[in-house]
Amino acid sequence: MSLLNTIKPENAQGNVAEIYNEINSTWQMIPNPIQLFSVSPELLKNQWEKYQYFDRQDIPSPKLSAMIRLLISDEANCEYCIGFNSGMLIQMFDMSVEEVQQLQADPSSAPLDDKEKKLLLFVIKAVDHAHEINKNDMQELRDAGLTDQQIFDAVNSGGTMRAGNIIFDTFKVDIDF
User: Fold this and answer.
1) Which of 8, 14, 76, 163 is deepest in the core (most CB within 10 A)?
2) How far is residue 88's CA from residue 28's CA, in Å, rounded to a whole number?
3) How many Cβ atoms sit within 10 Å of the Cβ of residue 86?
4) With helix as H, strand as E and coil as C, how does 36-87 read?
């Protein structure tokens, strides 16, 4: 049980109820990590808008985004996020359990095209070793055809996931899948 008093969907009112209704119509559920944001309705709104933004992007693609979230969460040992994103890769993107395990063991084995694979490895490096990023890293991504916005968005997604790992683990989000 979460250490915070969150608003359950059946008790939501006002802005929280409106946002929950949008989320439920898109995802058919209100995941516990989303409910955690209900303690701060403005941040709940911002978080939902961020999810919607990333859902509209081609790069990172939804599959790449799930891989980023999984690998960032794996490094942080966030049980909820590891399970959720592994399940997403298996159920939505037809990866086998063995492929997900291989991805976790060796991110360079990701079943992605070269451009997205380079971006995945860059995001992992950026989140775990930001001071090691240099102009050559950036140029390699640009040479692969990635724009600065795509690179920024992917790193932002990875950094947001790391922050989420900390928040979800701090407040003991229950697994709901």
Assistant:
1) 76
2) 14
3) 21
4) HHHHCHHHHHHHHHHHHHHHCCCCCCHHHHHHHHHHHHHHHCCHHHHHHHHH
> What are the pLDDT digits (tens) for 76-126?
999 999 999 999 999 999 999 999 999 999 999 999 999 999 999 999 999
Pure H helices in the chain: 14-27, 32-36, 41-55, 62-76, 79-92, 97-105, 114-128, 135-143, 148-170
Q: Which two tokens stand for residue 68?
A: 């980023």
Structural domains in the chain, sorted by start = 9-55 (no CATH), 62-170 (1.20.1290.10)
The pLDDT-based confidence of 55 (bands split at 50, 70, 90) is confident
Percent of the chain predicted with pLDDT > 90:
91
Q: What is the dihedral of CA 74, 76, 79, 83, to 10 degrees?
A: -30
- Cα 173 to Cα 11, 12, 39: the distances in Å are 18, 18, 13
- Distances, alpha carbon 10 to alpha carbons 29, 47, 64, 167, 168, in Å: 12, 20, 33, 23, 22
pLDDT over 90 (residue 35): yes
The DSSP symbol for 96 reads -
